[in-house]
Amino acid sequence: MDANTSAPPLDAKRMGTFEFSRTIADLPAPKGLPLVGSLLKLSGRQFHLTLADWIREFGPVFRLDVMGHQLMVLSEPAAVEGLLRDRPDGFRRTSNLKTSMGELKIAGVITAEGDDWRKQRRLVMGGLNAEVVRNFFPTMVVITERVLLRWKTAVAEGRRIDLHRDLKAMALDVIVAIAMGQDIDAVNDDGNQVQRDIDNIFQRLGARNATLLPYWRHFKLPVDRAADKSADDIEQAVIGFVKDARERMAQQPQLRQKPGNMLEAMIAASENPESGFTDQELISNAIMSVIGGEDTTANSMAWMINLLAQNPEAAATLAAEVDAVLGDAPVAREWEWLKQLPYLEAAHSETQRLRAVAPFMGFASNADCVVADTFVPKDTVIFVANTGASQDEAHFPQHELFRPERWIFDGKPSREEDPSRKVFPFGAGPRLCPGRFLALTEIKMVLAMLVRNFELVPDLDAPPVEQLLNFFVGPSAVPVRLKLRAR
Ligand code: HEM
């Protein structure tokens, strides 16, 4: 529940200026317990699955009763898109998110609102836009080749590969390189401290989100103290990166006009007294990028590998597409090649449909408004299931099947047909994920390298893969063995 929300009672005068056919009280709702309502169901590592069950049972717009408050849950695509577009003015992120992330030193654009958000968003976008990602491509090739070498060596030596661990390390190398201009080579450093710290922070965020009583605000267990230490360590590492970048920029003043990475761009902007950008905001956004760029992308790749291993036909179609574009090259060496992989893009979209890493978000309304024909009072909490339509047969027939083909059209699909108007794995509107272009580039590089060089062999003896909500949703394992492809 959002601590800032206490919607005042409705009255006819307040509602008179709006057109709507129902109020939140008219919506269907799961039956909760006396007094607490559905509170006990709102936490836990499987909350996203409970939400999906509710969507199946109660439809795309329903209500949750929690401790005497009425919350709304929305998965109807047009209403979801409309709400996401009406930010930051119409809706804000819940203050719970800001508090729980802030406690572990994650702040910056993701939890900023209003003009503060506008200012920070411009800066973060400047560091992650298409041109920056394109200029970064040569480094991306080097990092991908590093992963290939590691996997080939492991296969040759008959060693088991921990794919999920390696994908996280690779995503970390990419984000630290593009955001900070540093090569930490976490891929080849099995005990990398930054990676351990990020894992620690996500585990704590996930566990705290799954806990009803925020005990850690009153006393700390060893795990809480360890997470605090990880947050401090990451802050210190980032402060070090900022110091290095400032020294670099002092020696090469031209970097102020032509920054080489996101951090340099932010430093250059913050030095302008009119920017109003503080040192703390600079550090917060740098920390947020490192943390935000790792698990999202790594979990997406891990899900995609699991799904391809279970769908050998799709994997073979993908391998054929990649072979045709890469030729003899073991990794994509030209930026243009990445644009010639429509099946790979479709397989990624299908992965996000079935296994979104961020399948819901919490918002609060900034003013009385109407959402999905429902009157919504100011300060109402709304859970937006941004990929909630993914299991709706009307939108995605045989929805449980992994079928990248549903994302491929001869021409431009009509608005009604277009699947990208039905699920929003990267959000939508002004706060659309600024890292999506980087993430997509990285995912294409790794998956193309993977299917070009290896066959994916599912480990049939492994227990079923679970979907775990650890702040982001990720697979419990990637039980897939790599076998070198014959050339
Ligand atoms: C497959 C990978 C990723 C997925 C699925 C993903 C998903 C999302 C989603 C759903 C949002 C919320 C959007 C909204 O409110 O409409 C978001 C926001 C954000 N993401 Fe990503 N993300 C990914 C990768 C990245 C990467 C690599 C970065 C790099 C730093 C990043 C940085 C951010 C930031 C800064 C925001 C907050 C934007 C704002 O509030 O204005 N993400 N992401």
From TrEMBL:
Keywords recorded for this protein, A-Z: Heme, Iron, Metal-binding, Monooxygenase, Oxidoreductase
Gene3D superfamilies given in the database record: Cytochrome P450
Requisite cofactors: heme
Keyword Heme: yes
Pfam families: p450 (PF00067)
PANTHER family assigned to the protein according to its UniProt record, in alphabetical order: CYTOCHROME P450 307A1-RELATED (PTHR24303:SF31), HEME-BINDING MONOOXYGENASE FAMILY (PTHR24303)
Family of this protein: Belongs to the cytochrome P450 family.
Protein name from the UniProt record: Cytochrome P450
The organism's taxonomic lineage, starting at the top: Bacteria, Pseudomonadati, Pseudomonadota, Betaproteobacteria, Burkholderiales
